[in-house]
Amino acid sequence: MSTSNTVTRKAADNNNNFKVVTVVATRGRGAEISEEISYTDTKVIGNGSFGVVYQAKLVHTNEHVAIKKVLQDKRFKNRELQIMRRLDHQNIVQLKYFFFSSGDKLKEEVYLNLVLEYIPETVYRVARHYTKQKQTIPLLYVKLYMYQLFRALAYIHSFGICHRDIKPQNLLLDPETSVLKLCDFGSAKQLIKGEPNVSYICSRYYRAPELIFGAIDYTCYIDVWSSGCVLAELLLGQPIFPGESGVDQLVEIIKVLGTPSREQIRQMNPNYQEFRFPQIKAHPWHKVFRNRTPPMAIDVVCRLLDYTPATRLTPLEACAHSFFDELRDPETRLPNGLLPPLFNFSQQELNITPSLNNRLIPAHMQSSTPTVSVGTASNNDKSSSQQQSTSVRLNNSPPTVGGSNSSQIQESAVALSSTTAVSVPSSNVHGSSTNIPATTLANNGGNPTSTNAILTSSTTDQTEAMNSSEDVPIEKEDHRA
């Protein structure tokens, strides 16, 4: 690893001075070809424990980019960089270049700079705009955004890569084309069967229950749960599980889904079977959402938000759901024109679950789409359980679960046993409230509502220790969480 030679010079543009930075960068895809690039008009658009994100303009193309600058541990390869270099999909933010630079104050410090395509909007900001107007996003746009998210997830899951931080803030939107791009792979990891993973991952509102139960052998289905939370939020106009702390998050889930059965708990994490929860009945899904919510939309949500990970829809199964049939109608139009490309599946995508291909590709487009036989082996179907098994044990021994998770689950059980009445939050806005026994727990965290459009690699309430897990040892295989 070597830092690039950075040259800064002044240039004139319409009698105004601006700084041009020239570096030797490596192309984001393909062979490691280095070339000199220059950028200007640099301004900070995001900050966090991960580093800084700048917006800039490439001089040779006049293209706006986002530059994510993170402190690099010299002992490790950066996991986010390794993953981004593998990905090539229209619904995933593109890595254009990367380069290393020295610190401004401490020259021995090395920073990794990821030069990414710049997308100006996010699903979070669009949804917040409608909420401020006391409206919800038009259903066609909900379908359009979620469909593209599922395509992105199907693609990365086919490589065994789990994003681990799906939330509206990480879904970039091009307002002119309505193209959605998944960003922020700072928490992403390729899940390897038999290797443990940290359970304290993913922003709280979107955290799958198996993570709350402390599972270390989870699968890519945690992304599916998070996507279900995003879909529900777009339909409701507010988060469906707004837990005020890690403890309260499980309470919020149980208030809607009911108490998980013993078998469901075993599927999430067998280590927690000894905890006894009061028997809370599931809240009827049609009462969670507003009266005019289409049944097909509710059906998708309830099939994504399932306690049992392997029972959840796969991303491609979600794409094939009837909820998205409007997108497959050749007559469907957006107010400002045609839909973006939705059915230009690559061979990689068509090989994931071949039995779904006839459903995924509209009849009027099938003649122009690459074909794959139905008998082709799937890289990522139900039988492979998203490249993982929910019952794997490292060295055939029970998983080691942190005490914090254990105590949080116990606190959740105590909270649900309390006599203080709490309303199902999702019903408060759109319908009559239904009270169930639970306490309102103290707020130990905040709403993860960062408006930095591009990429915060640490989750909202994630510890600093987690930041070190973004890297992969240079000399060794990745056995980190």
UniProtKB/TrEMBL annotation:
Region annotation Disordered: where it falls in the sequence: 367-481
Family matches, as InterPro entries: GSK-3 (IPR050591), Kinase-like_dom_sf (IPR011009), Prot_kinase_dom (IPR000719), Protein_kinase_ATP_BS (IPR017441), Ser/Thr_kinase_AS (IPR008271), STKc_GSK3 (IPR039192)
Feature: compositional bias, Low complexity: 412-427
Domain Protein kinase intervals: 39-324
Record flagged with keyword Cell membrane: no
Keywords from the named record: ATP-binding, Kinase, Nucleotide-binding, Serine/threonine-protein kinase, Transferase
Database matches in Gene3D superfamilies: Phosphorylase Kinase, domain 1 (3.30.200.20), Transferase(Phosphotransferase) domain 1 (1.10.510.10)
Recorded family membership: Belongs to the protein kinase superfamily. CMGC Ser/Thr protein kinase family. GSK-3 subfamily.
Gene Ontology BP, a term: regulation of microtubule cytoskeleton organization
Protein name per UniProt: Protein kinase domain-containing protein
Protein residues bound to ATP: 69
Keyword Nucleotide-binding: yes
